[in-house]
Automatic annotation (TrEMBL):
The keyword Metal-binding does not apply. This is Origin recognition complex subunit 4. GO terms for cellular component: nuclear origin of replication recognition complex. The lineage of its organism: Eukaryota, Metazoa, Chordata, Craniata, Vertebrata. InterPro entries: ORC4 (IPR016527), ORC4_C (IPR032705). GO terms for molecular function: DNA replication origin binding.
Amino acid sequence: MSQSVVGLTCRLDVLELQEERVKSRFSHRQIHLLNPLSFTQYVVGSQLSLSQDFPHPKFCDEWNRSVTKLCEDKSVEEILRRQFNSSKDFRSLYMLLFLAVIRVSPSHSTLRESDLLEASRLISADSKANILHGLSVLELCLIIAMKHLNDTYDGEPFNFQMVHNEFTKFIHRKSHTIHKFEKPVVMKAFEHLVELEMVRVVDSATGKVQREYQLMRLMLEHGQVMEALQKYPQCPTDVKQWALSAFA
């Protein structure tokens, strides 16, 4: 008699957390559910308003009027819509509102549009994109090579050898400012990206597979890479051009 176990989770790496003997018994069938929440249900006023039993009625009325006025502001609606399009999870909304509310002080007693704007800037700060700014040019080139492979093979896993081949093709072009690196040096740079969790092994059961051929995934999105390239200090022009051609 066969048995089935149905699990629900918001973690994308839940299978990677299981023991090998457990994973071997999985059917590996996954069903991804989308949140049906609409923007009209993304009610912010009710989240920010104070109840009528608040101990200071005068402040309560003043605060609630300011919240109503804030929600009618077109620029605030734009901030909220951008947040909604980024994540429909209410926890993300609460974090945005929390970062705005903590700016309130005795001299700044009500919420303003600038508070939400600053909160949005803070919550959208991308830690991985920030890490990219501190990479070496070689490591940045490997990121570009991996993103190129993602575009070419529609997001399918790749291995180090494929990344090295892609990087070598760029080095062999007629005009570039990046000198040739020995393969062990490139491998060390690649392993550093794995340590930084920019790249992740697809299946942990790869003990018998040579390092060069372990299947990997890039944990960065197109926008993160492009943003990092724009802010990377003194990024070589030909590297930027290669990235743009890779994303085309």
